[in-house]
Fold REXO5 exonuclease.
Amino acid sequence: QEKSCRLSAALLGEDCEISHDQLYELLKYAALGKCHNAAQPSWCRIYHRSHLAGVVVVVLHGVSQVHFYRFYLQFKHLRKVFRHRFTFTPSANFLTSLYGEGPDLRPQNTAPGLTSTSSECVTKSSDLQCDPIIRRYGEQKRGLTSYTLTLEEQKKNNYPIKGSPGCKDYISTECDQQRTDSSPLFGLDCEMCLTAKGNEVTRVSLVDAQGQCLLNELVKPESPVMNYHTRFSGITKKMLLPVKTRLSDVQTRLKKMLPHDAVLVGHSLNSDLQALEMIHPSVIDTSLLFARDAGRRFKLKFLAKAVLGKEIQCEQKLGHDPTEDARAALELAQFFIEQGPAKVAELNLEMLLTAEKLAEVSQNKVALQPQGCGVQKQLNEPPRLYKPCFLDCLQVTGQKPLLLGRQGLESSSLCQSNLSTSNKQILQRALEDVPLSTFSIVQFSLGPEYIASHLHAGLYEKVRSKLTDMLTIYAGPFEEGFCLKSVKKEFGRCGPIQSLTVVTETFQPYIRVQYEVLEAAQLAVESLNGAEVAGSCIQVQRPVTAAMLDCDVLIKELELDVENEGVLYVAGLKKSLTEMDLQEEFSHLKDLKMLFLPKDLQSGKHRNCCFLKFRNSQSAVDALEAINGWTVKGRELRSRNALASGHLWRWIWQMNHSNGKQGKHIFYEQMEQLSDCEQELRKKMKKLDHRIKKLYRSLQNNTLCVVLFPGANSIHGSQPGLGLMGIKNDAGRSAC
């Protein structure tokens, strides 16, 4: 009997965000097996890979995760077939970042029309707006005061602030004079060792605006050293033996050295100031200055090489040189101020970093061409790089990938390209050619009139608003002077509460509860409507709006979604319980495969709920009957089928904490325009779903199919991409 391939991926909660590198890793292994340094992906597993009949990647250009949930009911096939889903950050050069597009990542001059590549947009002025640096600072040059961190930014990034908890005994530099664009810059860097007290300073360096070293001092920690971290700090026990200088001595010297309008520059400077136990009001942090999406940061070593053309933190040296690091951070800030955000964005740092990482993965390291103030010519002439490409590896093994769609790859010689003008033509060619190819890339597209950035932002705002309403319930009426604490406790047993407020506009008081998870709101409606709470028989309902008229249908379809099959939501847990505690509590449940305990993605604190994933649906049904009414550590549990256990859970959490920032750029006229085209979009999404269904049915068994919504970057905000994947089996559904 022929073995069936199977795909396994632990994509619950916060584990659902996948990088482009991880996606590349999966496709490379699926296409090549263990040839050409390909390895089993770290985040998922393909069983019996040698029996894989082929790989099909479907790319829906102009579509993001927002489209999937705005038109969720239209995507009948996708949500019923693909069990594994993940989210990823969008990329301007989507095909480039995904497939490793051959020897030259620099955009080429191509004739206009259907064959132009997706990488064209890198150098166009209009698309610079997508760069996080431009979104943050604009394109115009500014003075240095525009790049110093505000008080709120310092608080957010854990800088020591006067009067804040934990900074009571910190020393102020007393540099309290008003800053101007002529204020002097000073580079600062420290090296730390681990002591019984924590990380303590063992070396301090300060350089002036000309790069001259003003201070390079070893410091004796107050507490015994537990780990010198010599590999990074360069500090050894022998070096510190004769040292007499203490932290208080360095604090005094720095106060004397710094003028009253000094601006300190460093890379993640908050760590240095915390270790120095000093407060300074005006700082430029180069790890934040060279902005990236999703809270990521470039390393100082990479920035020094890519921007300044300087090698620092070399492996041959013992540890980091703080004077070298301080000078590098200072020069990076000076470069940014002198050249302006537009020039920095044109360096395409994200592309350079991706190329460097993938070059290392394939053991084909590339030296980054130095750019920046030392080589002015390079500012207008991005370097030619080699990005490892598994498409050429396929060609070596005698396989030539099939590329269908409107966009071509620059490395077109590596593919059998057939560029068509319409989605209908693309589907017809795919039905004929894909079954004959072992690796296929099929691209469908929305028309250009449907991919404007304000339309993306408008759809996001509608999805955010609807999810907020679905997370919200109104309950009452209550008696005057009712006990709010007991009411909050009762509703909290359904799941984590985002906010609870009393509604006073009514004759008798009601409450408005916004939950953090969809299951909690649904559980409150199901279990507390008609119940007696705080001495009152109450009604529980969601808000009544035009957008919520299909809420019950949506809830039912989410429950039936294949991603939630065999997954239960359990609420009423003590927040002190760990995953290990819960594994023990639920260990006797039959066929329990996985447990996910949600936590606040900022504080890391656990929520009072969890998700249980079972190996089959029947085991989940049996467990649901058993769990309801259970008592764990004195708490009675409530449970129901999951609605958003996977990547949607993470997205909802991010929406809850975004304060609707992306929606405030949308004007009334644009929302009217969105309403006009939304009905047409519904039809287009339904057609896309139908076309993918026809293509999927034509595939051989044991074919890996990956459907990608690439997402979008715009001045209105970043819309994440969405991936769906599975291996087709005899039943037509993706094997897992």
